[in-house]
Design goal:
Layout: E1 5-10, H1 16-22, H2 28-34, E2 36-40, E3 52-58, H3 64-76, E4 77-83, H4 85-89, H5 101-108, E5 132-134, H6 141-153, H7 164-171, H8 176-180, H9 196-199, H10 216-225, H11 230-237
Parallel strand pairs: 1-2, 1-3, 3-4, 4-5
Length: 251
């Protein structure tokens, strides 16, 4: 049986989601045996094929060059799976979407005239057709393995629509929002992390983006009544998935 050819592509990102692939540990050998990795610079392979059966794409689009490159990736790929908050929502770098990029570059770079960048950081799906998205910052290893397994078996890729609150209940973690008034984005955040932050007594940061039918105005009102500072709450929404957690409020 011919193994599907795979490419792993990097755009504007920190490489954390690519490292999650390498962090699969016990499952990594089985993944490598089932898939034919031809392009994966983080791990070594660098072979540009005319066609890849599966492309895993990390990172957002922040330059004209990358906007052109992602279209080429789409043309060379059978299935495109975006991995991580940068690829699915623009990432932390999408904070530029609500600011003056030229002002940013003037403050950060000694030669801002050397910087060639777009005014916005956008998800991959804004530029090409995407077949499946894996959320998170970084992605969840178990979700990655389940997705790869489904693709190999020709099944529907797994879809999780519930919020982090369900994972808290599954772990037996007390609700921090109810019991302590802690600012927590769990009620409006897509599940997938295993409720990691609440399990160590930290409110959810929203790494996996908004869950289906997320009621942001309702959560903001609850947090306000609980005594949480509105500006801090808005700041927490404007991190990993700023473009999807857009409340319309003034920064």
């Amino acid at each position: 049986m011919t193994r599907p050819t795979v490419a792993v592509w990097k755009f504007a990102s920190c490489d954390g989601c690519q490292l999650t692939i390498l962090d699969c540990e016990d499952e990594l050998l089985a993944i490598a045996a089932a898939l034919d990795f031809r392009m994966f610079l983080e791990a070594g392979p660098e072979e540009m094929l005319d066609h890849f059966d599966i492309s895993l794409v990390e990172g957002s689009i922040t330059t004209n060059h990358d906007a052109e490159r992602i279209r080429e990736v789409r043309e060379r790929s059978g299935i495109v799976v975006t991995i991580g908050a940068c690829a699915t929502a623009g990432g932390i770098q999408a904070l530029r979407n609500y600011a003056d990029v030229e002002e940013y570059t003037r403050h950060i770079y000694a030669r801002p005239d050397w910087i060639d960048t777009l005014a916005t950081s956008t998800p991959i799906a804004h530029h090409i057709k995407v077949d499946h998205e894996l959320h998170g910052c970084p992605i969840n290893k178990e979700q990655l393995i389940a997705t790869i397994t489904a693709l190999l078996a020709g099944r529907r890729t797994p879809v999780t629509s519930h919020s982090v609150c369900v994972e808290c209940k599954q772990r037996g973690t007390p609700c921090l929002l109810v019991s302590e008034g802690t600012a927590c984005l769990g009620p409006v955040t897509h599940a997938g992390c295993g409720a990691l932050c609440p399990s160590i007594n930290r409110g959810c940061f929203g790494c996996f983006g908004p869950s289906e039918s997320a009621n942001l105005p309702g959560l903001l009102e609850v947090l306000r009544v609980a005594g949480n500072d509105e500006h801090e709450v808005l700041a927490s929404l404007r991190t990993f998935n700023v473009t999807k957690f857009d409340t319309g409020a003034t920064p």
